[in-house]
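hey all, quick one before standup. I had two proteins in the batch that finished overnight and I want to keep them in one place so we stop losing track of which output belongs to which input. First protein below, input sequence then structure tokens straight from the run.
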Amino acid sequence: MTAWRQPQPPAPARRARWRCNFRGRRFGLIAALLALSGCHQGGWLAGPKLARPQPLLVAWERVERTVTVDRPGEDCDSLRLVNDGSLGLQQRLSLAEAYYASGDFAERQGSCRSVDWFFGATMVTWDLSCDPTIDAGARDARGRIESLYQSSLLRLLRSSQRFGRFDPASGLAVELPQGKLRVPVVVHSNVWCTADLGHFAPVGEYDDPGLTHRYRTVGRGVPVVARRREGRGTPMVPDGQPFALTALLQVSADRPAGVLESPGGAVDLPALGCTPILEFYDPFLTHNADVGGCPVPLATDISAPLAYAHHFATFSPVRDFLQPDDTVRLAALGPHERGKIPIIFVHGLLSEPLTYLDMANEIRGDAVLSQRYEIWGFRYPTGGAVLEAAAGLREQLARAVADFPGCDPALSQMVIVGHSMGGLVSKLQVTDSGTVLWDRLATRPFTELRASDEVRMKLARAVFFQPSPAITRIVYIATPHEGSPWADRLVGRAASHCVRLPPENVAGMQQVVVDNPGLLQPTAPKRPPTSIDLLEPSSTVLQGFRDLRYSPCVKVHSIVGTGRTMVHGGPADGVVPVASAREPASISEVEVPATHSEILRDQRTICELKRILVEHLRTVARSAPEGLERETIVPGPATPEAAAPGNTARVRGGAAR
């Protein structure tokens, strides 16, 4: 009896299937590593909920019963009507409804006239909102007025950008019967200016799994996420950097008047009865606007730029891991403000600075910490050499401090926070190498190395360094000081094999080996090590890290994950054992029952980091030179809103415990 055997496909088909299976395994490996890194995506819904306009004809019929005014399609003199004292509450409200409905109709028709109609509606509702005769008895009218003002202003901002009517330098252009009105634009901020205003998006409802809370306040104006204008960027704050502002269009008698361009000559704008001005307020400077000499609460949302940046991010941690280069970048969420201490976040393997999204949001949402700290982030290719990445951070940090004009004591009191492998990169910023690392790699002094000047310089910057004088405190989060057993296993070796290092780096290392026989220690790597190679517990370089001396000015803290148990027993976070995450030099250590990827978002981790930051402020206040000891200015309370069911909102500005 002949046994049945499944027929084999032709050889080309077998090779194609093998390649497909290999790719599938490779992508499966990458997906597993990506899950360990804790990457996630967010959602951004464009624009908030708008007031529903009345039917166009109905709205204008109500106006015509009591007011003589031009119908849609004709020029409207909204400025005169706004200040017509003969109009009562219902007449002006009907006029605002008609203007808003006309703007809605024009916008849907793709007409630039929508800008003029929305401007008229905004001006009418602003006048109504400031009218003291509208008391609590007109609650329904008051609510509709506020809704119309917010919606009219929001749609005015949106349509003015769409039709090219908004320019930060020349102002907001509005067509009136007397001519073109240029409404001046003013930005109230310590770090941003009018020239920085590029495209901006009104803030609506958004959902980002990277944010536990949403910090915002309720009040006047429209919160927007503005992006830095092209050509205004710097290495630390590039073009397109999103930041939070609140837009407010108001009528003021003590502000600069707009410019009215008329064919018949100049027109005295105050003679029209009002002085409109479009203002943008920085929520980190103030939560109130000056309206008639009285502070009025503003609507703000300081979490929105983080969610916006997360949703529209184009960076690929997987690509950067598989094909690392020498590109590193130190960047900030905004221009440096004198007196604020930078916190440098350094991400881990297969990750990026956005993994600190929730942590940065909680710090910025704290009324005290947000006034004393600013957020910086360091991005580096996580598949390449850790020593090279650390050298890049040292150089860019020194350059950033040198580029700031004047002497700012805050720039010598920085805090660096490193998660996972980022903790190792951070450690190389606060330690003195001496000859420890070179002795681990070589059998002869560096002076006897035979290599080109370029190779010698590259090796020297990687293995010989001194602690940065700018950093005085370091926080390790789930950092594998003793390596991770995963790096020695199949998944780690396969991941290391997938990394494609720059050919010039590989060729340079091979040339050093050829030109210097017997130079390398028997345990030293014979090729440029990947980041996975460094994380092996037996790594020669990693063992050298243990002997590095900390700067005497640096205080060390550790946060250790205990949310999992390793295969061979012992507490861990699923990736880094507790024994590996502990640093003997730490003055404080906190265990957090979380996994390696969840520990950054765990509220116990965030509370511990905030406690460390408060402690750092106390230390700075006792020892820092004059200039850092300044009174904390609290702009006002914000209400943190839970971003997901089950989250407990905390009051902004509460003490870190």
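OK second protein, same deal, sequence then tokens:
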Amino acid sequence: MYGTPAKTHLPELDKVKILLVDENASHLNFLVGCLRNNDRVLLAAASGEQALQLLRENPDIALVLLAAQMQGMDGYTTASKMRDMVTGTELPIIFMASGEDTDDQHIFKGYDSGAVDYLIQPININILMNKVAVFIRLYYQSYLLRETNQCLEQKISEHQQTAEELHGYREHLEAEVERRTLALQHANQNLQDEIEEHLETERALMEAEKRYRSIFENTLEGIFQTTPDGHYLNANPSLVNIYGYSCTLELMQSLNDIGLQLYIQEGRREEFLKIMDRQGYVADFESQVKRKDGKIIWISENARAVKGEDGNVLYFEGTVEDISERKKAEVELQQINEAYRRFVPHDFLRLLNKKSIVEVNLNDYVQREMSILFCDIRSFTMMSERMTPQQTFEFINSYLSVMGPVVRDHHGFIDKYIGDSIMALFDKTPDDAVQAAIVMVQALAPYNAYRGALAERHEPIKIGIGINTGLMMLGTIGEYHRMEGTVISDAVNVASRIEALTKTYGVPLLISETTFQKMHNPSQYAIRFIDRVKVKGKSTEVVIHEVFQADEPEVREGKLATRDEFEQACLLYHQGLFIEADEIFNACLAVNPQDSVAQVYKKRCMAMRGTVDHFL
């Protein structure tokens, strides 16, 4: 421990007050930690105004450690005001300044404002403790000198008065001389105490250096000092062991260009130097390096630049930690997460506001509006009956590898595969779901061509897609040992029923009225109203529209040409005017004979007309 000067045994000096002024809380904590002592009272201020208030309340402050640069009232102004407050007494002020505040201009400014000394950031603990000890000793001596002088002045005045009145009191003068002699002896004793304290301080410094050397030699972290051009100045045994050398001397002689000999990544040392030049330190600087035996490991470095009085970098000092095992674990965790993402979509975690699958718990859910898409292969059961199990799996995976990316490309994600069926969610806009469905239908032509060109000459496939938009609950269901993510909502059931209706109307893509209404720009697509139906599980009718954007050009143009007439015929049909509706549907089929929906309505009209004729 750093000592303090022997006290004068005067009650006023039992505890010396030291004022610490810095707006940086970490600096104040550092100073308090260094200077804490039973013989001292540490007063801390976070601003110049607070420091002046503390000085008013404590006029017996012995020493001030003052930061030069602070917001508001800086250190120079604060020091000047302190001098004005303690006129007639000595108040030593030590400025704490950064490197840029120690040029001649700032130093003169500091001394003009009242500074007696400087401490340069970052503060050297030994220098700090020695300077504080010196000024405390000066404070004790100054206090004792003032007391002695006051006493001497008083005695001289008394002596003069006595001499004028009673010139014969020589015994009193001899007693005064004896008293002064004792005072000098006491002062000498104090000086001897100070010498002993100085020796104690030196012993404490030696003990601290011994402890530091023990830490340097025995810590598990590698400790180093290197020159800016890449030479090692010092290294502890842990660093030698991390890099695989036999001793410090071998490491220092072998590694004379860290950038070329140590780092695996080209330019890594240059990046280290750029960061060091920019901020004066590096933290958690992770790199791959090569050991002496050629083995590549991961390390993490923390270092700072040590500069001379001229501001130039003398060397770098810091620590190195071998993080190879941690990196290996991170890679394994990343691979596990990647594997989980193939089973649990990342967007599912995003919507649940989870960063990782390990954060997901049973009953986690979120409620929001989304569009849901169901896609199914027509007559898949019949097709699978003609395939072996292996062929069935190969076909499904081949098909899904075409359709899955289309969903992701349009900001959606596949919630689950149900055999050959796809259930996909789109949480941004219904337009994403509709556009994805159009591309999925368009992708069938090249996919069928590819399958037809195979040796087996597979028959072409058709798909049906239904889309609905509504409020859904997305979350986890199941039990503790087995759960899965899904969506639950009436809107999900409606989308499934709409997909099933594509078989009824012989079209590939149907959407609900809700999806149609919530699209940003439905006019850019080829869409027409086709029916108002009561689906299973719903008490109210559902309006459905056909998106025929992906139809064959001839069919699409025919539907566009007859769209108004077709929708008028649908209206007449639902009004019970079957004869009038039948005539318009016939006109639509005359223009576009391949209109499967018009064909369905024509059959319905014929059936309804027969019923009407029967009752007539």
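Flagging for whoever picks this up: The radius of gyration is 45 Å. The chain has 21 helices and 18 strands.
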